Amino acid sequence: MNADSVHGGGGTVLGKDGALPEGDTKYRAVEGMFDRLAPRYDRMNRVISLGMDKRWRKHTVAALGVPAGARVVDLACGTGDLCRDLAGVGARPVGADFSAGMLANARTDAPLVRADGARLPFATGALDGLTCGFALRNFVDLDAVFRECARILRPGGRFAALDATVPANPMMRMGNAVWFRGAVPLLGRMLAGDAEAYSYLPKSTAYLPAEPELRDRLRLAGFADVGSRTFTGGSVLLLTGTRVEAAVEGPGSGVAS
Ligand SMILES: C[S@@+](CC[C@H](N)C(=O)[O-])C[C@H]1O[C@@H](n2cnc3c(N)ncnc32)[C@H](O)[C@@H]1O
Q1: What 3-state DSSP class applies to 6?
Q2: Model pLDDT for residues 163-209, shown as the tens digit of each residue
Q3: Which residues make Cβ contacts (< 8 Å) with residue 81, sequence separation at least 6?
Q4: Of the residues 22, 49, 134, 140, which should be mutated to test ligand 1's pocket, given the most ligand atoms within 8 Å of the CB?
């Protein structure tokens, strides 16, 4: 826990020394940060991804590979981009996010629910698919979230999660650092009035385990056919899997979908 991080909206997410928060401090600081960023989130997203985020999400929905009519939860749905893409291929999305601010700014016809990724209000085995865009590194306990994803998916249900990562190639890594650690906080200050939040976003890639470990942890949670691919020189990772294990009882089990 980092006592220097202020809890809740309007506060700071990084400690005074620029340290990343952990545990409960991280949970509240991240929630407060997204509540604060929500009204400007979409515009900033397009700018910092140079418009490429739309293409990454389309790949995510294609990799999910669910048929029309499939019931899919978009975990950490934010302002609903993936919900819209899922609806566009005939799926029936439901968005879940813990930030009231992001949900209030969502532009989607999908039903939305305010919930933590580790305690989802869906019955065991109720969903055919689950997507998650740019949120894995924001969760406090990634294994608990992976287990919860396994719990709510039916056997054979599909999982596809997209997140920012650091490229393995040294040249790409340098370019990535110049953009995300140099330009993005500056743009965050100019366009969103929040350099600190846009310093957190690139720094938070440090939370994400290396890709082979991520795949192992997804398998341990109850997924098979675990695969991954990267986009844009290795700066974005897509992690996929298929739920095969028997239902894992979790904190949200027993709650009606
Ligand atoms: C970078 S935004 C991504 C939003 C959206 N998925 C997208 O692709 O644009 C990360 C989202 O994760 C949500 N989030 C972070 N931690 C969460 C948690 N523990 N439970 C639910 N949502 C969470 C935030 O509120 C925020 O909306």
Answers
A1: coil
A2: 999 998 999 999 988 888 888 888 888 887 888 888 888 889 999 99
A3: 42, 45, 53, 54, 57, 133
A4: 134
Residues linked to residue 215 through DSSP beta bridges, in sequence order = none
Q: Three-state DSSP class for 244?
A: coil
Mutate which of 138, 148, 149, 201 for ligand 1? The one with the most ligand atoms within 8 Å of its CB, which is 138
> How far is residue 190's CA from residue 184's CA, in Å, rounded to a whole number?
10
**Phi, psi values for residue 193, rounded to 5°:** 65, 30
Choose the residue to mutate in 60, 77, 147, 200 for probing ligand 1, maximizing ligand atoms within 8 Å of C-beta: 77
- Distance in angstroms (rounded) separating the CA atoms of residues 169 and 217: 24
pTM (2 d.p.)? 0.90
- What are 118's strand-pairing partners? none
Tell me the domains of the chain and their CATH numbers. 23-48+167-205 (no CATH), 53-165+208-243 (3.40.50.150)
Ligand 1 pocket, CB under 6 A: 30, 34, 45, 76-78, 81-82, 97-99, 102, 116-117, 133-135, 138-139
30 alpha carbon – ligand 1 mean position (Å)? 9
Strand 112-114, strand 153-164: pairing: unpaired
Question: What is the Å distance from ligand 1's center to 172 Cα?
Answer: 26
CA distance 135 to 161: 8
pLDDT tens per residue across span 56-79? 999 999 999 999 999 999 999 999
The tokens for 32 are: 């407060």
